[in-house]
């Protein structure tokens, strides 16, 4: 199976090449040339299976065995999830009538990013060793991708890791998770800007082809198709636990960069009977405005209590546009050029109608987020982090319209990552799990850098072992 770029100009490439490439050379994002489909009987057979077994089956439909053999994929998946703190890896908790939270935060860094990142690191390490290559990993984070990447890739011989986070705009726990890791191949960069600035610079680094080639750049954001592929799995385990494929299930997904909800859309394209995919945003509601009006318009990011979703340029929305425009790369290039030049684009009527067929959207403001944390604690004794609270609040709105379909809100972070917001809303301060108990005592190491691509390039050149002349 080959992978094509959403902008239609880069050559089609295999899975491993897409995994290591990050962004396509035409600035687009890779997707498989066709969506594989799982038969209803295959999906039904997931019932009662361990998470790793379902992951192996779902991912073997997306990863050709010529890239990673089936036994090796099985080993990687088992080892990726062996360290999760819950035996079900991603368990479901019921918090109301037909209302469930899919807990995706039992990995090492307490956010859903671990689910894909632990596997991605194993796949990339294998690919790099097989090719005798080294890579320079660059990533943009609003708090969670960075810590997950640092945990998964820290200390690996083949890679140097540079993570850009918005200075002063992540929670203290998130910052310390990135800055207190004692691994010489890890570099935390506090960028003087927003997450959107961090992501624009990361994409700019990939689009600077001489720099990209010299440093052998790779990406770990959801730019990387391997991340999205791994995130499809928990939609299958959750839906099957609630009766799929015999009955449909809906999901409410706290959304920023659009990777997680896109993974749900792909699970649906692969045959999973998903009824609604609710895009739940905080006050950075660009996607809600887009679904309502058809106009995608950047207005400036507001800081909120769910900082990981303080995003306006939702990278993976491009992958959805590619689908609803009939995989026409030229149309995607036109829209992305308009976004670059005028900070906005308009979606045509037919593609917009197609988006509305699968997705609905809800913005949840700061007051509603706080109220939801309080409500879930009072009514169900369940502590939500602010990102999950946004999803649960949106889930309740969807359930009010369609109470018969089970609704799963994605629980994307552990409440202890955002103790101040949780304490304000619920009146108690969640404790970090034992493996992070000394987080506040560890020394921090980070570099503050101006919001300029050239400054970031100089810093990376000065630290990366893959820079010219030092490459393995
Ligand atoms: C805790 C948390 N929830 C939700 C999101 C939004 O997910 P996505 O960017 O895939 O839309 C993020 C950031 O990615 C996050 O870190
Ligand atoms: N919320 C994310 C932002 C980056 O998202 P990604 O899925 O593209 O890596 C974060 O916490 O870093």
UniProtKB/TrEMBL annotation:
It comes from the Bacteria. Its cofactor is pyridoxal 5'-phosphate. PROSITE patterns: DEHYDRATASE_SER_THR. One of its GO terms (biological process) is threonine biosynthetic process. The modification N6-(pyridoxal phosphate)lysine is found at residue 113. The keyword Lyase applies. Residues 4-81 form the Threonine synthase N-terminal domain. It is an enzyme of class 4 (lyase). Signal peptide: none annotated. The keyword Nuclease does not apply. Pfam families: THR4_C, Thr_synth_N. InterPro entries: Ser/Thr_deHydtase_PyrdxlP-BS (IPR000634), Thr_synth_N (IPR029144), Thr_synth_N_sf (IPR037158), Thr_synthase-like (IPR004450), Threonine_Synthase (IPR051166), TrpB-like_PALP_sf (IPR036052). It catalyses: O-phospho-L-homoserine + H2O = L-threonine + phosphate. NCBIfam families: thrC (TIGR00260). Belongs to the threonine synthase family. This is Threonine synthase. It comes from Chelatococcus reniformis.
